[in-house]
């Protein structure tokens, strides 16, 4: 029988990478994954380093999703929501040529799809999201940073070999 290892032992010491932007006027801009765009023009709605491997990425993504849900519970979907912007910035490398008709069609599909879902997700967070109230922003931020700092190679190497019980 194998047991999953706690990832805490494989977190590389370091400075937290993501921080809440509490000095921003708009509540959405306070989220830790919103920041200056790489080109210095405007904002990126997914300014998250690509570190921690797949396992750390799952930890980080889960924590940031919970922060987003708490945001929706507290503030609702502002101006049609922001989910489409988050998704577009997550996959932004997939849209390098704005003159390409297929890429523009896909971008429009992403915006339309997630713009439609965001108000419903916000309503669910507000009306059925009481469990979100027990989650602390600082704890979720620490969890997200732990995922970014995960030494996935060491974590995976420490996993016990599967035992064949046949």
List the helices and strands and how they pair.
Elements: E1 35-36, E2 43-44, H1 53-75, H2 83-90, H3 101-128, H4 137-148, H5 152-157
Antiparallel strand pairs: 1-2
Helix pairs in contact: 1-3, 1-4, 2-3
What labels describe this entry?
two-stranded antiparallel sheet, globular, single chain, 5 helices, mainly alpha, 166 residues
Task: Tell me about this structure.
- This protein has one domain (7-157).
- Helix content is 46%, strand content 2%.
- The chain is built from five helices and two strands.
- The longest helix has 28 residues, at 101-128.
- The model has no long low-confidence stretch (mean pLDDT 84).
From the N-terminal CA to the C-terminal CA, the straight-line distance is 12 Å
Could you list the spans in which at least 5 consecutive residues all have pLDDT below 50? Answer: none
Rg value: 18 Å
Please state the average pLDDT score: 84
How many domains, in number, for the residues?
1
Number of helices: 5
Strand order in the sheet with the most strands: 1-2
What is the helix/strand order? EEHHHHH
Would you count the extended β strands for me? 2
Provide the structure class: mainly alpha
The largest β sheet comes out as: 2 strands, antiparallel
Q: What percent of residues are in strands?
A: under 5%
Helix content: 40-55%
């Amino acid at each position: 029988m194998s047991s999953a290892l706690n990832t805490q032992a494989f977190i590389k010491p370091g400075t937290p990478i993501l921080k809440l932007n509490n000095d921003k006027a708009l509540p959405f801009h306070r989220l830790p994954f919103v920041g200056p765009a790489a080109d210095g023009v405007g904002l990126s709605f997914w300014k998250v380093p690509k570190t921690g491997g797949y396992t750390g990425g799952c930890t980080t993504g889960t924590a940031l999703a919970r922060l987003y849900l708490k945001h929706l519970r507290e503030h609702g979907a502002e101006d049609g929501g922001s989910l489409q912007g988050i998704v577009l910035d997550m996959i932004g490398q997939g849209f390098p040529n704005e003159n390409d008709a297929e890429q523009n069609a896909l971008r429009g599909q992403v915006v339309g799809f997630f713009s439609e879902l965001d108000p419903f997700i916000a309503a669910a967070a507000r009306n059925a999201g009481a469990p979100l109230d027990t989650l602390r922003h600082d704890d979720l931020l620490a969890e997200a940073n732990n995922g970014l700092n995960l030494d996935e190679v060491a974590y995976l190497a420490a996993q016990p070999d599967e035992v064949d019980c046949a």
